[in-house]
Predict the structure.
Amino acid sequence: MKSKTEIIVSKKTRILFVNPISGIEGFLPIGISSLIAVLQKNGFILDLFDTTYYKTTAYDDRKKNELVGEFVPVDMSKYGVVREDRDYVLDFNNKIIDFNPHLIAVTIPTAFNYTLAIKLIEGISAYEGLLVVGGKYVTVNPGKLIKNDKIDIVCVGEGETPLLELCNSVENNRSYANIRNLWVKDGRTVVKNEIGLLEDMETLPIPNWDLFDKRHFYKPFNGRAYRYGHVEFSRGCPQRCSYCINENLQKLYKGKGKYFRKKSVDNIIEEMEYLKHKY
């Protein structure tokens, strides 16, 4: 049996992930971590542009929470957790120039990330490759995103399988117009492919955090800073809370397979032990 972290074969295609986060610290996004793990295992060349520690807004969620007494104050600067007042759009373009990706993959998990993500996308000055966006916000607003002139592909739903197929198609110079879960621009038309679910979570490799800034591991809690990591035990919450996107996702995936899926206990233990010892 192959290791869950073993690289299958080295490839030439370069993928730049973009994590447009603002005002949140100590958070390792599960989605990107899983996508990175899948592509890294399959030999692709990867890099990440992350706005977490840029001063992208005057809003500071931790300071607000400390002010109302929700959080106990912690001096996170001791761990290098400060926001830098730099031109993040310029830095993003420099990253594109230096890394020269064949594909840029931008995640937009919530409406809170949308404005920053679009600012980065619209700020790209020179890039000839493909740009794909995904995430829960994109999944429920695909028509809105595909109208953007700089976006080539929208991923609707879970991304591990379609992104791997897309990257393999780019690597082998094959058509990617008919990959499940993708909306793909084809001239003046948009190919809207059928949506599907990842049926077996046991097939996923262990999340990969190698590309993330080490400051992501520090999170304040009850007056102290702890080293944190985020793991995924299941997908497809069966609840229908009125404030959550989950009811929309249930409707979207209806008839597409088993919605609630979980990892085995042995898989979870292996994953947690590996992540704890490595990071």
The longest helix spans residues 265-278. The first strand starts at residue 14 and ends at 19.
